[in-house]
Write a structure and sequence with these properties.
The chain is α/β, with parallel strands linked by helices. It contains twelve helices and 19 strands. The chain starts with a helix and ends in an 8-residue tail after the last helix. Mean pLDDT is about 95; it is low at about 1-10.
Length: about 475
């Protein structure tokens, strides 16, 4: 009976994919938020900041409650998303920032195939708009990783509006305020804050906005500019299959909210939170424009749209909340790794689905490749989600979720998770949690259940032996 059910599933999937190929390959749009916390969307339970357009993806499609990324910060997370491989398999362990983006050996290795390359070779027109952060030198340019078009920037962040910050309220981190004070210094449109204890990074240093391969002078608020370019791309390529990777830098710092958006959040007392709310609201409005263009182009039934964040929110820095999860960006607790994850494909995916099966950004590569009719590389870590998305299965092949970043590490196996956030490589200190009963990771069971902890440690060590040393 099990063999017959497997054969039936195979035949139904084969028929589905063949019928897609005979008619038209679906368009694929990935909307990636930057540093958006697990608990910030309306569909995730936050009533404070309306996000109706993003929420509509959940109400007209699927919301995953246990979706993970491959690292608790930007660059290795994006490396995993685009390659379908745990980034430490190819030495992509850490998060390059500032001048490190310009190092000749820092970036996504040229021999790692991206989903953009795979789809391009299936006849797709491919485009990256927004943040790259996978290498800032020529060897790592998006054009050399399968993208036909590129509009955005190469490093980890960018000002939404440069000085003198017209039309926005800007909040910048500083070590010290005027008069050698601590706290906040507020003027009409500029706020200095010492709450993090260090200065705002030099985001724009040698990091221009680029169209293709040439710097351009962009005057619009950057979220709006990226949306403008995405709408144009959809309109220009509506007659052919396309892959659009729209990687917003919202809600990543620097904190800059449009004044007209901040006016909608005067009920929030803290100006810090007001600016964040304005940035998230602006991104939601932009996604509304993307969805409108898809509809106007007659592509609703031909387009799979995916929304997720690259990692958990940095709560102290941005106020970006990961509740009810523990931890934040940079942490191996759930708040650093579990993200909002939504999918919509009108007429193909049943609406108003909530899926509790653990999934990963690694699963996007094999899913997209299958939809495009491409063969799957044998070295992928992700799984094809189609049987789950099409309600042909309620589970996926068993997979362990592995993370490593210096002395920080984690592994999820089934409902169990071990976390290393302290200790050393020689003497690691592992914590143990049962996520089915304790998704907030409040009760460490490592001492109470040493056999289970050792079982997961052994599995982590087995996977770790397959990984490469950090390249940078």
């Amino acid at each position: 009976m099990k063999l017959l059910s497997v054969l039936a599933l195979f035949c139904s999937l084969t028929f589905f994919l063949n019928s897609l190929s005979a008619a038209e390959q679906p368009n694929i749009i990935v909307l990636l938020a930057d540093d958006l916390g697990y608990g910030e969307l309306g569909c995730q339970g936050n009533p404070q900041i309306p996000t109706p357009h993003i929420d509509s993806l959940a109400s007209h499609g699927i919301r995953f409650t246990q979706a993970y990324v491959t690292a608790p910060n930007c660059s290795p997370s994006r490396a995993g998303l685009l390659t379908g491989r745990i980034p430490t398999r190819f030495g992509y362990e850490f998060n390059p920032i500032g001048a490190r983006n310009e190092d000749s050996g820092t970036g996504l290795p040229p021999d790692e195939q991206t989903i953009a390359e795979r789809l391009h070779d299936q006849g797709y027109t491919t485009c990256l708009i927004g943040k790259w952060h996978l290498g800032g030198t020529a060897d790592y340019h998006p054009f050399r990783h399968g993208f036909d078009e590129f509009f955005g920037f190469m490093h980890e962040g960018h000002y939404f509006v440069p000085p003198p910050y017209h039309g926005v309220t800007t909040m910048l981190r500083r070590k010290t305020l005027p008069g050698r004070q601590k706290g906040r210094w507020i003027s009409d449109n500029l706020i200095y804050s010492t709450h993090m204890g260090y200065d705002e990074p030099d985001y724009d240093a040698n990091n221009p906005i680029i169209r293709g391969g040439q710097p351009v002078n962009e005057t619009e608020y950057l979220t709006d500019a990226f949306t403008r370019e995405a709408v144009s791309f959809i309109h220009r390529h509506q007659d052919k299959p396309f892959f659009l990777y729209l990687a917003y830098n919202a809600v990543h710092s620097p904190l800059q909210g449009k004044k007209k958006d901040i006016q909608h959040f005067t009920q929030i007392e803290d100006i810090h939170r007001q600016i964040f709310a304005a940035m998230l609201s602006s991104m939601d409005q932009s996604i509304g424009k993307i969805l409108k263009q898809v509809q106007q182009s007659g592509l609703d039934a031909k387009t799979l749209i995916v929304f997720l964040s690259d990692n958990g929110g940095p709560t102290r820095e941005l106020t970006s909340s990961n509740l009810p999860l523990r931890g934040e960006k940079g942490s191996m607790y759930e708040g650093g790794l579990r993200v909002p994850f939504l999918m919509r494909w009108t007429g193909t995916l049943a609406p108003k689905q909530t899926i509790d099966v653990p999934v990963s950004s690694l699963d996007l590569f094999p899913t997209f490749a299958a939809l495009a009719g491409a063969s799957l590389p044998q070295n992928l870590d992700g799984r094809n989600l189609l049987p789950l998305l099409l309600q042909q299965k309620t589970e996926l092949p068993v997979a362990d979720f592995f993370w490593r970043q210096g002395r920080k590490a984690a592994l999820r196996s089934g409902d169990w998770k071990i976390v290393q956030m302290r200790g050393t490589r020689e003497k690691p200190v592992w914590e143990l949690y049962n996520l089915a009963n304790d998704k907030s990771e409040t009760k460490d069971l490592a001492t109470e259940l040493p056999e289970k902890r050792l079982e997961l440690q052994t599995r982590w060590n087995e996977l770790n032996a397959q990984m490469k040393p950090a390249r940078f």
